[in-house]
């Protein structure tokens, strides 16, 4: 898993007639010049911020797991624990004009974007103050204000939808980039490749982030994919790809910077394969027959994204225990408050059954 | 004879069919090692091997398309779609190919495939995991559409579906998977497709339902009995081809009917049944036909789903309205 992943394997597109300079080559030299070793760039404030944001997701998700167990959350619910570095590293590279779309394992994405934990939690408990008025649940939340376009339960769906979002951005001729997240399992859906083709054809500003957590439900990448280097999936469309250690938030950030720059400058899409891992079951009901406890424990102890940053902070003397403790406390308060809010918010009105179907029925 | 739940009955039928005929293959996402989301295919991989129980990549369209190809070669693929909410991409394969292969090749090629998928709500599973798209399939010429309502029917109808020479969409009511229990004799005996089952006789009103709504209709019949109303309950079981005869005969006896389904009212299969009754039993009717259905909205919010789905009391109320006509 993450261990065997080189920091940035890349696939660069072949030379094409219409491009005097092969984009891959241009990219490479640029990258080399612009992105020094990630640790050197990252200031202690930045790293502390990553630590905080990842910890928020971790603690939030742990609480969600408990509340689900207590029957406070209905429907399907997929936790992001283990994958925190991916969204945190990527989000750090984005600006106010950029937008995000993802699948159903979406709590971490929303928290990283800065959506309110208490309103995410209230949606999970199906309450009126949730982001979808308590009608969407875990998989279906949106925020126009934060440019978060869901939250989609259909595996693979974010890819064509995200490609459309990026088309709109290009049409509006702004600087905005779309970040489109999907899983290793999703990467075997046909619509992904139809979208890749269009994105490169029309040079759309979209970063396809494949969160390769090694499994699609109970099916490992190896058992489902003819080729397992998912960052190469855009090769035949000449979309450059990078394989990134998705357990290392700094590596993610560095790759994100490169991809954002690529997209902003009108060069078209880029694929980032994030090698990551989910610690918990696929959803809250998972027979866990497909992998061993040892495998999970090994990743947790050797590659945990939060521990890695924590160690970096302490060893580099960028923060002391007291500082980290203060962050822990802050996060605890946020999560407790979210959980309370989510249980106090009223249930949706019965009349809500008939709203939001058509503008008027 | 063993008491099993509906998902176990499905499992027994699959195992039996695979045992009998090595052209029966099971394919779908996580049907092998995991044994399926609801464990319907549990143990089949161990028993029949990876050549016959295929954990597929995540690609519904190709799962269905591949099954058409297999079917054309005389195999009997049984494809699982994890939830009916993910079945929409395969409508393309079913409508354009599976359902028309026989016709298009003038009978030279057929497509004996089965698509199984858990359908309906009641497990607080929200959008994509609670829908009832049976009417969409029933609208496609060349497909059979079957929905069991008990372990026994699940066993018998699934065997019949697998042995049938044409494509069958087999929808399994999720909420009955574990809730419905009953005796099943694993003797390989199939039910007959294309026949409605009269589960309870009565002379005053006919309650027509399929899938999980059959259980609600039976409960409604019990409630009505206490009020002196005799309700006949028909489990439609095969929506297409529809056994109009059994329905019309019952209306001839009762003169009143309530049709119940979970799917939204508009364009629901209840409309088709009402149409047949109007055509063939109009003058037997003593009261307007009542339809109790899901509302014309997107599948419900988790907290209020019990309001969305028709239940015994809504069905019984409709029967009482019908009884008010004398
Ligand atoms: C079209 C479709 N098919 C099947 C499912 C059921 N399902 C939900 S998640 C999932 C696995 C997806 O795996 P992956 O893309 O790797 O994402 P991960 O869950 O690992 O984040 C499946 C099969 C679905 N939601 N949508
Ligand atoms: Mg995955």
Report strand % of chain B: 15-25%
Secondary structure tally, helices of chain A: 13
Small molecules bound in the structure, each named once? thiamine diphosphate, magnesium ion
Sheet of most strands of chain A: 6 strands, mixed
Report the largest inter-chain contact: A-B, 38 and 32 residues
What general form of chain A does the structure show? globular
Please mark out the parts of chain B with pLDDT under 50 across 5 or more consecutive residues, or reply none: none
The percent range for helix content of chain A is 40-55%
CATH architectural type of the largest domain in chain B? 3-Layer(aba) Sandwich
Give me the secondary-structure topology.
The complex is a heterodimer of chains A (about 350) and B (about 325).
Chain A: E1 8-11, H1 23-34, H2 38-41, H3 44-69, H4 84-91, E2 99-101, H5 107-113, H6 117-124, H7 158-171, E3 178-183, H8 190-201, E4 206-212, E5 215-216, E6 219-220, H9 221-224, E7 241-245, H10 249-264, E8 270-275, H11 293-303, H12 305-315, H13 321-344
Parallel strand pairs in A: 2-3, 3-4, 4-8, 7-8
Antiparallel strand pairs in A: 1-7, 5-6
Helix pairs in contact in A: 3-4, 3-5, 3-12, 3-13, 4-5, 4-10, 6-13, 7-8
Chain B: E1 2-5, H1 6-20, E2 24-28, H2 44-48, E3 53-55, H3 60-72, E4 76-80, H4 88-98, H5 101-104, E5 114-119, H6 134-138, E6 144-146, H7 151-163, E7 168-173, H8 176-179, E8 181-184, E9 197-200, E10 205-209, H9 212-226, E11 231-235, E12 238-240, H10 244-254, E13 257-264, H11 269-281, E14 290-294, H12 305-308, H13 312-323
Parallel strand pairs in B: 2-3, 2-4, 4-5, 5-7, 6-7, 10-11, 10-13, 13-14
Antiparallel strand pairs in B: 1-8, 6-12, 9-11
The structure holds thiamine diphosphate and magnesium ion.
Q: Concise description?
A:
Chain A is α/β, with parallel strands linked by helices.
Keywords summarizing the entry:
heterodimer, A: 361 residues, alpha/beta, Rossmann fold, six-stranded mixed β-sheet, 10% strand, disordered N terminus, B: 326 residues, 2 domains, seven-stranded mixed β-sheet, 14 strands, 38% helix, globular, binds thiamine diphosphate, binds magnesium ion
């Amino acid at each position: 898993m993450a261990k065997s992943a080189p920091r940035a394997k890349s696939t660069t597109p072949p030379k094409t007639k219409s491009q005097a300079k092969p984009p891959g080559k241009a990219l490479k030299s640029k990258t080399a010049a612009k992105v020094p070793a990630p640790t050197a760039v990252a200031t202690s404030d930045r790293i502390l911020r990553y630590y905080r944001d990842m910890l928020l997701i971790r603690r939030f998700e742990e609480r969600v797991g408990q509340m689900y167990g207590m029957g406070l959350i209905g429907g399907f619910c997929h936790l992001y624990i283990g994958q925190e570095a991916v969204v945190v590293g990527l989000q750090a590279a984005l600006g106010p004009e950029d937008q995000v779309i993802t699948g159903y394992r979406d709590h971490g994405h929303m928290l990283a974007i800065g959506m309110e934990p208490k309103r995410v939690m209230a949606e999970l408990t199906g309450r009126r103050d949730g982001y979808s008025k308590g009608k969407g649940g875990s998989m279906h939340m949106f925020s126009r204000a934060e440019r978060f376009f869901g939250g989609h339960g259909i595996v693979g769906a974010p890819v064509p939808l995200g490609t459309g979002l990026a088309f709109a951005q290009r049409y509006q001729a702004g600087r905005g980039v779309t970040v489109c997240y999907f899983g290793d399992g999703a990467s075997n859906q046909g619509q992904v490749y139809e979208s890749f083709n269009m994105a490169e054809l029309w040079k759309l500003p979209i970063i396809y982030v494949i969160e390769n957590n090694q499994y699609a439900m109970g099916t490992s990448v190896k058992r489902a994919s003819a080729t397992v280097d998912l960052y190469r999936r855009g090769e035949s469309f000449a979309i450059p790809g990078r394989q990134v250690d998705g357990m290392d938030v700094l590596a993610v950030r560095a790759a994100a910077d490169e991809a954002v720059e690529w997209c902003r400058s009108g060069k078209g899409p880029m694929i980032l394969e994030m090698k990551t891992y989910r610690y918990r079951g696929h959803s809250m009901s998972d027979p866990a027959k497909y992998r061993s406890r040892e495998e999970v424990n090994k990743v947790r102890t050797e590659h945990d994204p939060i521990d890695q940053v924590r160690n970096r902070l302490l060893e580099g003397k960028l923060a002391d225990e007291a500082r980290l403790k203060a962050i822990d406390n802050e996060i605890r308060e946020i999560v407790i408050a979210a959980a309370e809010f989510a249980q106090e918010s009223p249930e949706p009105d019965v009349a809500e059954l008939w709203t939001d179907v058509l503008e008027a029925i | 004879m063993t008491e099993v739940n509906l998902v176990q009955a499905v499992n027994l039928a699959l195992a039996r069919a695979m045992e009998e005929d090595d052209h029966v293959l099971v394919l779908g996402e996580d049907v092998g090692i995991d044994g399926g989301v609801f464990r319907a295919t549990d143990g089949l991989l161990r028993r029949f091997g990876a050549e016959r129980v295929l954990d597929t990549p995540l690609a519904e369209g190709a799962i269905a398309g591949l099954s058409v190809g297999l079917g054309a070669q005389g195999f009997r693929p049984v494809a699982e779609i994890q939830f009916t909410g993910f079945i929409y991409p395969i409508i393309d394969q079913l409508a354009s190919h599976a359902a028309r292969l026989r016709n298009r090749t003038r009978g030279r090629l057929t497509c004996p495939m089965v698509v199984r998928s858990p359908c309906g709500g009641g497990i607080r599973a929200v959008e994509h995991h609670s829908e009832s798209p049976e009417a969409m399939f029933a609208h496609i010429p060349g497909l059979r559409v079957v929905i069991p309502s008990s372990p026994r029917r699940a066993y018998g109808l699934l065997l019949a579906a697998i042995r049938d020479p044409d494509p069958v969409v087999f929808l399994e009511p999720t909420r009955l998977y574990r809730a419905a229990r009953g005796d099943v004799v694993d003797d390989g005996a199939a039910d007959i497709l294309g026949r409605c089952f009269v589960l309870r006789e009565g002379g005053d009103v006919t309650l027509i339902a399929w899938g999980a709504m059959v259980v609600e209709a039976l409960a409604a019949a019990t409630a009505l009995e206490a009020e002196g109303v005799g309700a006949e309950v028909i489990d439609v079981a095969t929506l297409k081809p529809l056994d109009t005869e059994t329905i019309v005969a019952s209306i001839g006896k009762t003169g009143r009917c309530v049709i119940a389904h979970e799917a939204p009212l508009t364009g629901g299969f209840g409309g088709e049944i009402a149409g047949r009754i109007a055509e063939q039993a109009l003058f037997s009717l003593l009261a307007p036909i009542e339809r109790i259905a899901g509302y014309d909205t997107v599948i419900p919010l988790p907290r209020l789903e019990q309001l969305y789905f028709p239940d015994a009391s809504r069905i019984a109320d409709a029967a009482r309205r019908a009884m008010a006509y004398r």
